[in-house]
Amino acid sequence: MNPKNESIPRWLEWAREIQALAQTGLHYAPDEYHRDRYRRLLDIAAEITAEHSGLPLDSLVRVFHAARGYATPKVDVRGAVFREGKLLLVRERADGGWCMPGGWGDVGDPPSAMVEREVLEESGLRVRAARIIGVFDANREGPELEVMHAYKLVFLCEDLGGEPHSSNETSDARFFGPDEIPALSSGRTSIRNIREAFAHRGDPALQPVFD
């Protein structure tokens, strides 16, 4: 049994578990009779989430039904890039909050290549993934409303040059000191991620953290 996470609403934990069980059941269902019942469970999980979150039901139904195969957590990669002791953050157009550049992992690419590309696309900086800072259970870092369970891989990246600029997904990119951190983009970067980034930058002997 998974430990209860006090920071996440119980309804969201239930909805996620129902969705995952239904997705996996649909994958292995032997006939249409069982598939119909697993599809109904996906609808119920979406209805629970919509009722408590205010998110559009139609969109949630599409998201829950789109996932295929055995249900596993999604993977998010983030790059910690420092210049003169300050951490690079980008401002998300989606919600106006700030985060370390990154995003969902792409099939076929190694995590290091993904994070290097994401940093370049979102901030204009060329980087090299140098070492892993940590592997975080994103759904246990705060009261997020991400409907899917996710793991977050945070890399310490070497700055290879370039000037920060905006992108299609970001409206700004700047460096911030540890006491200058602006309002963060919920679900993309947590204060814990940032603290670990500064700690690992300051002490190369630190071992990666993990949940």
Structure summary:
With 211 residues, the protein is an alpha+beta fold. The protein has 5 helices and 8 strands.
Determine and state the CATH class of the largest domain.
Alpha Beta
Euclidean distance between termini CA atoms: 16 Å
Mean pLDDT: 92
Percent range for β-strand residues: 25-35%
CATH fold-level topology of the largest domain: Nucleoside Triphosphate Pyrophosphohydrolase
Shape estimate:
elongated
Write out the CATH superfamily name of the largest domain: Nucleoside Triphosphate Pyrophosphohydrolase
- Which architecture of the largest domain does the CATH hierarchy give at level 2? Alpha-Beta Complex
Number of domains: 2
Low-pLDDT windows of residues: none
Structural class of the helix and strand makeup?
alpha+beta
Q: Give the count of helical stretches.
A: 5
